[in-house]
Amino acid sequence: MKKTILVFSLISSVFFYSQNYSSLDKILEKLETRSKKMKDASGFDIKDKKFVLIEDFEDHAERHILEFRNDNSLTLIEVIDDKSTDKTYSNIFTGDYIRKKNAISVRADHLEGKKISIPITHNLYLMNANNIWYLKDINTNKRWIENSNLLKKKN
Questions:
Q1: Ramachandran class of 140: left when φ > 0, alpha when ψ lies in -120 to 50, beta otherwise
Q2: How far is the C-alpha of 122 from the C-alpha of 105, rounded, in Å?
Q3: Is the CB of residue 133 less than 8 Å from the CB of residue 149?
């Protein structure tokens, strides 16, 4: 008798927990569809698009320009402005990327045509807010804004 009650209680608990998980999943789906940032961006073409990340530090400023090409290759340009000497330095990286829906994995493994031992990698997520497309770095939460949006804001 004890065994049957134990088995019945285990089966019923699994049943109730699975219903609870189902309702949680439905709530999350509703939240994702309502949120403008989490919409499916598989229809947005990133080929021939440029995204810019600007960072300002005490001693220097960095501008990173990420350009996606048609053949799944990319160019990452890193421009560093030294504030103490007013000199500008640049690095041009090339590599490739893989895209699955909103997720984009970037690997830049060549510096000015020469292979580097440790490639620069970024895991990015394509997002949209107020019709502004941007890439959000999953690891650092930095935002790469599409270049055409920057040009619209200046004018």
A1: alpha
A2: 6
A3: yes
In whole angstroms, what separates CA 61 from the centre of its chain? 22
Give the DSSP per-residue string, 74-110: EEEEEEEEETTTTEEEEEEEEEEEEEETTEEEEEEEE
Q: Which residues contact 79 (CB under 8 A, 6 or more apart)?
A: 62, 63, 64, 65, 88, 89, 90
**Domain positions in the chain:** 1-34, 50-154
Is the pTM value of this prediction over 0.85? no
Q: How would you label 23-48 residue by residue, b for 16+ Cβ within 10 Å and e otherwise?
A: eeeeeeeeeeeeeeeebebeeeebee
Query: How confident is the prediction along the chain (155 residues), in pLDDT tens digits per residue?
Result: 666 765 555 555 544 444 444 555 565 556 545 654 556 677 788 888 888 888 888 888 888 889 998 888 999 989 888 888 888 888 999 999 998 888 889 999 898 889 989 998 999 888 877 677 888 888 888 888 887 765 554 44
Six token digits for residue 69: 């090409």
